[in-house]
Design brief:
This protein has a seven-stranded antiparallel sheet. Strands 4, 6, 9, 11, 13 and 16 form a six-stranded antiparallel sheet that branches. Strands 18-19-20-27-22-25 form a six-stranded antiparallel sheet. The chain is built from nine helices and 29 strands. Helix 5 crosses helix 6 and helix 8 crosses helix 9 (458-466). It has helices at residues 2-25, 59-64, 130-138, 144-161, 248-255, 259-265, 341-344, 447-454, 458-466, and strands at residues 42-46, 49-53, 66-73, 77-83, 88-94, 96-102, 110-111, 165-166, 169-173, 176-180, 185-189, 196-203, 218-219, 223-224, 239-240, 275-277, 311-313, 322-324, 328-333, 347-354, 357-364, 369-375, 377-384, 394-397, 401-404, 409-414, 418-425, 432-434, 473-475. The protein starts with a helix and ends in a 15-residue tail after the last strand. Hexamer; each subunit is composed of an acidic and a basic chain derived from a single precursor and linked by a disulfide bond. Residues 35-263, 312-462 form the Cupin type-1 domain.
Length: 490
C-alpha cells in the first residue's frame, strides 16, 4: 500500500510538473485586446535579393502559432535549397521563375535524353557503372589523391555520356500557391526580368513540428552572415549550411570526392548569402511553359508523396468561388482542390475587390488566419474578440500583415481602386461563418429570437434578417464613420 501511495504521489507530481512546464512554454497567448498591421522586423540581405522575416514573437502571431517570411529574388537570382521542420504554404505575389523540391526517398523523374543514348550507356558515364564505383570504394585506403583523380575521371566521363537527372522542376508564376512538407528541400530561380516575390507562412504549432515554436531554416548550401537574429536567447553568429557540421574528410569519403571539393561544399569563404546570382545560362531539365493549368481528376490512389501535386493558381477569376464583375472575386484552396494540404493541415484564400466593395462580416470557425496584402489598401473594421472588444480598426496596405485569430469577426472594405490579399489558414478545410447575408447566422435565426434578443420590433428584425441578399461580397452603403479601438465598458 505504501508503494502504491508513493507511486501515485510521484505520478501526481510529474503531472503537475509537466503541466507547469507546458504552461510556461506555451502560456495563454490569445488574450488579445489589440491587433496591429505588422511590417517585417528583420531583413537578411544577399547577393541577389533579400529575405524579410516578421517577428513571430508578436502576440498575434504567437496566438496563431505561425511565422511569416517574404523572399525577394532578383532577376537571375537563385534561392539556394533549404528545408524547415514545419509545414509551409507559399504564395507567388509577383514575378515568375522555376521551383524545385527534393522529397526524401523519391527517385529522379526528370532525365535528360542523353541518358538513353544507343549502346546502353550508363547514367554514370560510359564504362563507369556501379561495378567500378564499388571497386573505387574498396580502395579508399589508397588516399584522397587517387579518390580525387577518380572523381575527375568520372566527371569527364559523365560529360560525354550523361548530363543530368533530378527531381521535379516546375514553372511558377504570379498567383501560384505552393504547399511544402516539413523536411522537403526547396529552391527557387528567377528567370524573369522583374523581382520574384514569394510570401510563406510556417505552421509552428503544427503536430509535425517536433522542435520549438521558432522558425528554423536548415540550409543545404550558402550561408546567412547575419545569423538567426529572430530567435531570442541564441548567441548571434553567422548561420552556415548543414554540411559545415562535418569535417571535410568525412564529406570527402561520403561523396567520394577530394578534400578540396568537400571544403567548397561548406561555403566557408562564401559571402553571397542564401540568394546568389547565377552567372551565365541556368540549364535544368524542365517541361515547356504551361498557358493554363489543366483540370486534373484526382482519386487519391495514384497520387503518392513523390508525385503529389503541390501547386495551384488562385489568380484566375474563371475558377473563383465567388465572382461579381462590379465587386471582385474570392478563390479558396483546400484539401479537396490540393490533396497534399490534407497532410499539411493548411489552406488559403485569395481575394480581389474593387473600391468600396465590402467583404461581409465573418469569422473563421475552425482556423487561425494570416492576411497579407499584395496590392492596394483597405479598411479592416473591428476585429472583435471574445469580450466583444474592437481590437483592430484601421488601414492595411501593400506589404503589411494582419493576423486574425479563430473566432474573431472581421469586415474588409477596399479604399483603393483595387484591394488584393492572400489569406493563409491553419486548417486544411477552413470554414467561415458570416454575420450578415443570405447564408449568415442571423438569417438562420427565427424573427422572434432576433426581436427579443436585440429588443427591436419584428419589422426591424425582418430588415436585419432579409435586407442583405448577398452571401460574401457587397457594395458598402457609403462612407462610414470609423472610430478607434473601443474597449468594453468597465
Amino acid at each position: 500500500m505504501a508503494r502504491l501511495s508513493s507511486l501515485l504521489s510521484f505520478s501526481l507530481a510529474l503531472l503537475i510538473f509537466l503541466h507547469g512546464s507546458t504552461a510556461q512554454q506555451f502560456p495563454n497567448e490569445c488574450q488579445l485586446d489589440q491587433l496591429n498591421a505588422l511590417e517585417p522586423s528583420h531583413v537578411l540581405k544577399a547577393e541577389a535579393g533579400r529575405i524579410e522575416v516578421w517577428d513571430h514573437h508578436a502576440p498575434q502571431l504567437r496566438c496563431s502559432g505561425v511565422s511569416f517570411v517574404r523572399y525577394i529574388i532578383e532577376s537571375k537570382g537563385l534561392y539556394l535549397p533549404s528545408f524547415f521542420s514545419t509545414a509551409k504554404l507559399s504564395f507567388v505575389a509577383k514575378g515568375e521563375g522555376l521551383m524545385g523540391r527534393v522529397v526524401p526517398g523519391c527517385a529522379e523523374t526528370f532525365q535528360d535524353s542523353s541518358v538513353f543514348q544507343p549502346g546502353g550507356g550508363s547514367p554514370f558515364g560510359e564504362g563507369q557503372g556501379q561495378g567500378q564505383q564499388g571497386q573505387g570504394q574498396g580502395h579508399q585506403g589508397q588516399g584522397q589523391g587517387q579518390q580525387g583523380q577518380q572523381g575527375q575521371q568520372g566527371q569527364q566521363s559523365q560529360g560525354q555520356g550523361f548530363r543530368d537527372m533530378h527531381q521535379k522542376v516546375e514553372h511558377i508564376r504570379t498567383g501560384d500557391t505552393i504547399a511544402t512538407h516539413p523536411g522537403v528541400a526547396q529552391w527557387f530561380y528567377n528567370d524573369g526580368n522583374q523581382p520574384l516575390v514569394i510570401v510563406s507562412v510556417l505552421d509552428l504549432a503544427s503536430h509535425q513540428n517536433q522542435l520549438d515554436r521558432n522558425p528554423r531554416p536548415f540550409y543545404l548550401a550558402g550561408n546567412n552572415p547575419q545569423g538567426q537574429v529572430w530567435i531570442e536567447g541564441r548567441e548571434q553568429q553567422p548561420q552556415k549550411n548543414i554540411l559545415n557540421g562535418f569535417t571535410p574528410e568525412v564529406l570527402a569519403k561520403a561523396f567520394k570526392i577530394d578534400v578540396r571539393t568537400a571544403q567548397q561544399l561548406q561555403n566557408q569563404q562564401d559571402n553571397r548569402g542564401n540568394i546568389i546570382r547565377v552567372q551565365g545560362p541556368f540549364s535544368v531539365i524542365r517541361p515547356p511553359l504551361r498557358s493554363q493549368r489543366p483540370q486534373e481528376e484526382v482519386n487519391g490512389l495514384e497520387e503518392t508523396i513523390c508525385s503529389a501535386r503541390c501547386t495551384d493558381n488562385l489568380d484566375d477569376p474563371s475558377n473563383a468561388d465567388v465572382y461579381k464583375p462590379q465587386l471582385g472575386y474570392i478563390s479558396t484552396l483546400n484539401s479537396y482542390d490540393l490533396p497534399i494540404l490534407r497532410f499539411l493541415r493548411l489552406s488559403a484564400l485569395r481575394g480581389s475587390i474593387r473600391q468600396n466593395a465590402m467583404v461581409l462580416p465573418q469569422w473563421n470557425a475552425n482556423a487561425n488566419a494570416v492576411l497579407y496584402v499584395t496590392d492596394g489598401e483597405a479598411h479592416v473594421q473591428a476585429v472583435v474578440n471574445d469580450n466583444g472588444d474592437r481590437v483592430f480598426d484601421g488601414q492595411v496596405s501593400q506589404g503589411q500583415l494582419l493576423s486574425i485569430p479563430q473566432g474573431f469577426s472581421v469586415v474588409k472594405r477596399a479604399t483603393s481602386e483595387q484591394f488584393r490579399w492572400i489569406e493563409f489558414k491553419t486548417n486544411a478545410n477552413a470554414q467561415i461563418n458570416t454575420l450578415a447575408g443570405r447564408t449568415s447566422v442571423l438569417r438562420g435565426l427565427p424573427l422572434e429570437v432576433i426581436s427579443n434578443g436585440y429588443q427591436i420590433s419584428l419589422e426591424e428584425a425582418r430588415r436585419v434578417k432579409f435586407n442583405t441578399i448577398e452571401t460574401t461580397l457587397t457594395h458598402s452603403s457609403g462612407p462610414a464613420s470609423y472610430g478607434g479601438p473601443r474597449k468594453a465598458d468597465a
